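Tokens for Deleted in autism protein 1 homolog. Go.
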Amino acid sequence: MLRILSLKFGRVYRCGKFLFIVALFVILLMNTHNLFASFQRNELTDRRFIGLNKCPACFGTSWCRKFMNGQVTFEMWGRLRFLDFFNVKNVYFAQYGEPREGTRRVVLKRLGSNQELAEIDQKICKRATGRPRCDLIQGMYKTEFARLNGDVRLLTPEVVEGWSDLVHCPSQRLLDRVVRRYAETKDSGSFLLKNLKDTERMQLLMTLAFNPEPLVLQSFPSDEGWPFAKYLGACGRMVAVNYVGEELWSFYNAPWEKRVDLAKQLMDIAEQLTNNDFDFALYLLDVSFDNFAVGPRDGKVIVVDAENIIVADKRLIKQNKPENYDVWYESRYEECDKEACLSFSKDILCSRVTVDHNYYAICQNLLSRFATWRGTTGGLLHDPPADVVKDGRLMALLDECTRPQKQYGRFQAAKELREFLTQLSQLSNTNR
């Protein structure tokens, strides 16, 4: 009976696959003229397509000259608009050309789905007029984004607290850093808000409120060793970042030695974002295989989605001394019926000096046997060699890092796991 059912399911699957291919072919035939037109024109020079017509309700204009000059072009599949139906996240691959530097690959982001971008317009209108529709440009000048005018010297915590994850618990030190490093102005380097033009100030505040990812990349740049993709610039509602490499998921079935190296780097990222010389703790709230990528040349792991990150200022926490601020905080493992889910309290992340959240997030969602993604289980370190299984330490450390059985067990397990992965990696290099 089971065999009959499996055969029937196989036939249905093959039939469905065939019908999908036929339907796609029909769509291609019906859109032949549009296909040729798509390859002939560069839509990245179209003001409406990139959202430049919505400025200052946009993310910036620093790369507009490059877009308008045709220096940024979609790669082949990105030119086919009917494929946008499958591109829910609005992330595109493109080529950027400079006369002296040649051509390089970049990633373009709209920083939201079409629905999310439409909701941004509605929220701006509601803030301005109380109604979901309005003249967007005029509406921007009636929001709090415009009311913070040139007389205001500093962007202060009480104004923007809670606007997004980046500023869930902002300190003045963090906001000064955000303004000083804002890349969408020619006058960068000053932490005084009044030094920005009105349009630049509105763009900064809108980005901070609706998707602060560009500001994270600018405030904690890769050039200074932070594990993020490099921010390049924006035009309208299209942001350009450096192409890092294939997503981490592509390495799920890579050779064991490669996966060990990637796991070690992931734990190093967790450590760096938790403890660094700047006393800013950057907590990853969205951890999945899609949010990391690996460099093709150096094999370096980089965070490529930085929208959902809380930045807690440890110096401010030590200064204000909220209740239990010096008590180590352990994240609790909770079973979930969804992929890549995490349990956390934003307020606690903002009020403790010592927190194990990043170790917990990396171990649970990426490395351990509890990690689930795209229908798989077992995590990046699945199916270890027999000698590693026999040794038992790796599985024990991963389990303790994910579901600690001892008080403060995750802190110790994370430390030992980093050391053990380093040993495994060195051993692999020696045996080559």
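The domain at 246-431 is CATH 1.10.510 (Transferase(Phosphotransferase); domain 1).
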